[in-house]
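Researcher: Here's a chain I'd like modeled. Treat it as a single chain, no partners, no ligands.
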Amino acid sequence: MNKVISIQIPFHKISDVEFIKNVIQRETGLKFFHYSILKKNIDARTKNIKYSLKILVSDEEISPNKQLFLPKFKSINKTSRVVHIIGAGPAGLFAALQCLEAGLKPIIFEQGKTVKDRRRDLANITKKGIVNPVSNYCFGEGGAGTYSDGKLYTRSDKRGDIVKVLNYLVYFGASPDILTDAHPHIGTNKLPSIIENIRNTIIQNGGEIFFSHQLVDLNLNATKDKIKTIVVRNLSNESLHEIPCEYLILATGHSATPLFLLLHDKKIYLEFKPFAIGVRVEHHQEWIDSIQYHCVNRQDWEYKRSYLPPARYTLVHTSSDFSAYSFCMCPGGIIAPCATDVNEVVTNGWSPSKRNNPFANSGIVVAINQKTLNNTDANPLVGLYYRQAIEQKCFEAGGKNLFAPAQRITDFVKNKTSASLPDCSYRPGVLSVNLSECLPEYIYQSLKRAFIQFDKKMKGFISEQAVVVAPESRTSSPVRIPRYKQTYHHVQIKNLFPCAEGAGYAGGIVSAAIDGMNVAQAISLMSSNSLE
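Model: Modeled as a single isolated chain. Structure tokens:
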């Protein structure tokens, strides 16, 4: 007998096994049973904080989740068909895993470095303000996901197998807790070893991965509907290699500006995609906890935090002329420098696995569409240029040394430069700037109005100790590489498979991984049909 039930328990009883058993017994009437928590979520909408649990109840012993999943890869040999993958982020890596399951040989070209070698370039960013355009917080093994908090929450349940992605991550070393948490999170400090395990598995099972190899050109056939060859540059010695290509997956991420320019130059069809731009807002984590967990004093906060994780928030404000919302909220995290070129400032956020830093930050962004940009000629790259202009303006405002322009949120809403700034987690550092001079008027005014509304929902959101850091500009790709819904190949190029965030079809680690697997499955089907 297996039965799934839902129960609620007081937050301080989450580790009390006997209490949970008693609740299950009351709900089911069973005296003897085994149980496993399938999903848990905090319900803090009222002062009576509870854990909502989905529980599997059985009269037989339940095996641990992490023992249920073992990937099954087919053997790869010289006759195996090859799939070339550009990018070793979540989409590229999971596409490679799916290729191996299907008996296809994945060959990944990643312009960045291994996760270990990448660390030196990250240190140069935070300590010296020096950006390597091909190895940074966005580019390199694991992609932007390696250093973007490791959030695994997604609404993409209709797009593919979320459970399979999570099981793969547990298989590669993530905590089994991600299988049950409603908002699963790995932590930036834990992701590198998981990424290395994925790489080793791909190589051990017949795939290949080349780091510091950049796609610089592709050659089409006479009818301009298929790729014949790709040209890859080995960045270690600047040598060029032209490679015959049967299937090409583009899994380059939302920051691959040179790729968008290459495709546009090759007259490969692109589209403008709506996106969002704004800022990072940083508060003390203790204040967010106190608001979200209804704490009456510090003692109450200490008690609740002994049972509850650092709190998070989700905020949205819409009106007839704009919409603004929180994005990638990072409890106990830092604001990270995510520029991918030498003359720009870009921010993002991440948290370690314990989320134990004193600050919390979130992107607060404003939706951007064709009407916003007055894109009457439907230029597919107009959003890309708009984003670049903001990032470059913030670079100049910050002093051209990768310092980010910043402002107390109280001064932001008053449109005045802050005389001083509170402590901020962003490194290399921040410079006091009136952000109305850095951001387009539409974005600045929309954020100002949104902050005032957010303060009504979370009293104290606007405070002297909260700091606004600009810009948060890489929420998603401003360009879409359009593809067919069923076959996943490009609408013009039959063997080109745009994938995940960079192509405009995903937004986060899990949705990107799902899209990578879906694309690889589509190629497997196409490959099988071509053999019949």
